[in-house]
Amino acid sequence: MNFDQASTRDTETNPLVGGRLGVSDCSQVTDGAAVVVLASERFVKERGYCNKPIVKGYGHRTAPMLFEKKMADNAESEYTLPWTRQACVDAYKRAGLTVDDIDVFETHDCFTSSEYAAISAFGLTEPGKEYEAIESGMIEFNGTKPINPSGGLIGAGHPVGASGARMLLDLYKQVTGTAGGYQVAEAKNGMMLNIGGSATTNYVFIVGREQEAFV
């Protein structure tokens, strides 16, 4: 988190828009487009595309539509967004990987608080200790588990329907070493989290270099 920016909340140039969130904590809706082409494992093998990145795992969970119902349903959970956490767990399980295997993360930071909640959902810290990842520098660009080296929705803009596809494209760039100035060194596996409607929908994908079975 940019502490200089945080210090300007509730000022004339950075008024509060809800709770402790200021204007600068919110992504800007922009125009944009992205395309992702997915192919089956059989198609990839038959055409010799085995060196292309693959989707190693995915997770999809839905939560109640009404925010009040969400809060009632997660009253016993240690996670603010248990459905988001479960989508991440499902993706790890399908990929046969853990958080230790992920080199870079892209998350749906429509608000700074969304990225904060994603830290524990990914498993980078225990719930309630997300601040440790920030204070230690873990999630910074040069940290051990960088989040949103692309700039995320706040830095790059939020074209709504295209945001999830853009995040998947950024993972592709990272694991192929083609991310240019925001390339994370030696990125082999990347993970993305896309949420919508106050986490009513939660999508997670793990993208990485080809599995041994494809070699």
Descriptive report:
This protein has eight helices and six strands; from the N terminus they run αββαβααβααααββ. The chain is an alpha+beta fold and 215 residues long. The protein has one domain (26-214): Thiolase/Chalcone synthase (Peroxisomal Thiolase, Chain A, domain 1). It has a four-stranded mixed beta sheet, sandwiched between helices. Strands 1-2 form a two-stranded antiparallel ribbon. Helix 4 (82-95) crosses helix 5 (112-122). The N and C termini lie far apart (40 Å). The relative contact order is 0.20.
The value of Rg in angstroms is 17 Å
Q: Number of domains in the coordinates?
A: 1
Which series of helices and strands comes N to C?
HEEHEHHEHHHHEE
Overall 3D shape:
globular
Average pLDDT works out at 90
Here the CATH topology equals Peroxisomal Thiolase, Chain A, domain 1
- Summarize the biggest pleated sheet: 4 strands, mixed
> CATH homologous superfamily?
Thiolase/Chalcone synthase
Poorly predicted segments:
none
Q: What level of helicity do the residues show?
A: 25-40%
CATH class type: Alpha Beta
> Which structural class should the secondary elements be placed in?
alpha+beta
Q: Total number of β-strand segments?
A: 6
Number of helices: 8
Strand content: 15-25%
CATH architecture: 3-Layer(aba) Sandwich
Strand order in the sheet with the most strands: 3-6-5-4
Labels describing this entry:
single chain, 215 residues, alpha+beta, Peroxisomal Thiolase, Chain A, domain 1, 16% strand
Short synopsis of the structure:
The protein is an alpha+beta fold and 215 residues long. The protein has eight helices and six strands.
